[in-house]
Amino acid sequence: MKSLWFFDDVNLFKVLCPHKFKAYKSDHDFDAYKKKDYIYFEEDSANKVYLIEKGKVKIGYYSEEGNEVVKAILTRGELFGETAILGESVREEFAQSIDNSTSICPIGVDTMHDLMRDNQTFSFKIYKVIGFKLKKLERRLQLLLFKDAKTRLIEFLDELCADYGYDCEKTGDKVIQHPYTQKDIASLIGTSRPTLNILLNELKEEQVIEFTRKEIRIHKNIA
């Protein structure tokens, strides 16, 4: 396994997919999902991890009152179901495709353990990503519990800026080109889509941001 091949991730990391290795290619396929298809449910057996080749996946769970709580919305190059690597035997969340052309690279836990054992650098990357995701999730849950909706949106924009932002040389503004819909963002910050529209327009009126469907510009004098 000297020749490693990695997916280019759009924000966090580069991660291995076994279909590029002769030892695994023959019995490895990608799985296709349509919008609203579930990859797994709560209480399902946790025997695989998954890498997104394309599309988007929502990770969440249902509260005791039956309300959906969205933990994360993941895009190309991102890994999920990774707690199976750490010994989780049963899923504590669901994973659902929210795109009509989602393609998933499933990796058996035993295969993943083999790859991690055979390549120390890869193993380090996986554990680093797991730790990063847990810290990010903890921070987001704290925001949902203790911050108002506008503060949650501002903090989320900071997160988007770190993951997808770049400096505009002409104006010095921060430009964020992201893969999320307004419905996605509303779910992630725990509010409704109409409320999100109100908050975005408030920030626009305050000259904090400009926004279109796939781009948000944070003005230099604010950022």
TrEMBL record:
Pfam families: cNMP_binding, HTH_Crp_2. SUPFAM superfamilies: cAMP-binding domain-like (SSF51206), Winged helix' DNA-binding domain (SSF46785). Gene3D superfamilies: Jelly Rolls (2.60.120.10), Winged helix-like DNA-binding domain superfamily/Winged helix DNA-binding domain (1.10.10.10). Residues 147-222 form the HTH crp-type domain. Keywords: DNA-binding, Transcription, Transcription regulation. CDD domains: CAP_ED. PROSITE patterns: CNMP_BINDING_3, HTH_CRP_2. Residues 12-91 form the Cyclic nucleotide-binding domain. InterPro entries: cNMP-bd_dom, cNMP-bd_dom_sf, Env_Response_Regulators, HTH_CRP, RmlC-like_jellyroll, WH-like_DNA-bd_sf, WH_DNA-bd_sf. The keyword Transcription regulation applies. This is Crp/Fnr family transcriptional regulator. It comes from Flaviramulus aquimarinus. The lineage of its organism: Bacteria, Pseudomonadati, Bacteroidota, Flavobacteriia, Flavobacteriales.
